[in-house]
Amino acid sequence: MTATRRDFVASSLAAAGLALAGAPAFAQSDWPAKPIRLIVPFPPGGGTDILSRLVANKLTEVSKWTVVPDNRGGAGGTIGIAEAARAQPTGYDLVMGQKDNMVVAPWLYKNLSYDPVKDLTAVAHVAYTPVVIVVRSESRFKTLKDVVEAARAQPDAVTFGSPGNGTTIHLAGEIFKTAAKIQIRHVPYKGSNAAMMDVLAGNVDLLVSSLPSAIAQIKAGKLRPLAVTSAKRSTSLPDIPTVAELGYGKDFDVSTWYGIFAPAGTPKPVVDKVNAEVNKLLARPDVQAAIHEQGAEYQAMSTTEFATLVKDDVAKWKGIVQASGARIE
After folding, report:
1. d(Cα 109, Cα 75) in Å, to the nearest integer?
2. Strand pairing class (67-71; 223-228)
3. How far is residue 89's CA from residue 256's CA, in Å, rounded to a whole number?
4. Which of 19, 153, 301, 305 has the most neighbouring CB atoms within 10 Å?
5. Which of 80, 89, 126, 84 lies closest to 277 in space, CA to CA?
6. Helix (H) or strand (E) run with residue 256 in it
7. Which distant-in-sequence residues (6+ apart) come within 8 Å of 73 by Cβ?
8. What pairing do the DSSP bridges indicate for beta strands 120-136 and 206-210?
9. Residue 329's pLDDT band (boundaries 50, 70, 90)?
10. pLDDT band at 78 (very low <50, low <70, confident <90, very high)
11. Do the beta carbons of residue 114 and residue 82 sit within 8 Å?
């Protein structure tokens, strides 16, 4: 090969290399160039759905992106998370995950199709909330002590509804049973809204729920809160005691968090861009007020902080799930 020919080949390869190297950067800088799907792994009306739609609407309004919520409920939120894990890692398929399906599910389901740490990327933490134990306003139970006394008098006669087997909310009820040394019967539903409707109808005695799912009915006077399961009282319900304050487990602390995830392999510039935009939203007083209105507490995190939270919680909840004896085949 002549020197001229070698120079031509070398320059051509160099140009091709620069073009290939520049292509992903160009595509990422242009992102988003089309609508973004935000998978909501629970049915409409629950806490996850409410916060997802708030974030989607605000990103559309403030960031000028088009973010479309897509409800994919079922199996304690694991169906929607699995769909996100299988999606192409382009940033156009995101999911609102929470402790239920990202932390509890790996230890609860025998054949879970995804690994929350390996198959998904933590993008942006949004909020956290305590779990609340409520009854309908006409209930004979005025306090949590009333529930405990009735359950001790008639084991397994008192029922509690939850948004599904294996959710953090379900396990909060199971942990409460252990702490109070009582037997109450769990009735699982496909989402918070269905469970709430049955409690309001008087078909189930108690509802164990995320606060965002129940706050509207509490404010309307249709549900009576008996206790929250977090270590501290909720700023949204400052007059409602914690389970620990009432004497049922001095270290009782069960809360849940909500955050956005992407399929593993999603380009870091895209992940960082979503994180930055969500954190900008969380700094806005109107968004903070909307989150508080739903009974949740906003909390911005870096991608590294959020990933560490997920990893640490996965390890922590292994023991909690195993101690509860809960298992889903």
Report:
1. 10
2. unpaired
3. 26
4. 301
5. 126
6. strand 255-263
7. 40, 41, 42, 43, 79, 80, 190, 191
8. antiparallel
9. low
10. very high
11. yes
Phi, psi of 247 (to 5 degrees): 95, 15
Q: What six digits make up the tokens of 155?
A: 């084991």
Largest pairwise CA distance in the chain: 97
Q: DSSP string spanning 157-212?
A: TSEEEESSTTSHHHHHHHHHHHHHT---EEEE-SSHHHHHHHHHTTSSSEEEEEHH
Integer Cα distance of 74 and 71 in angstroms: 10
Residue reference for tokens 């995320």: 210
Tens digits of residue pLDDT in 93-149: 999 999 889 998 899 888 899 999 999 999 999 999 889 999 999 999 999 999 999
The mean per-residue pLDDT over the stretch 62-81 comes to 93
What is the number of other CB atoms lying within 10 angstroms of the CB of residue 222? 16
Type of residue at 163: P
Contact 166, 328 (CB under 8 A): yes
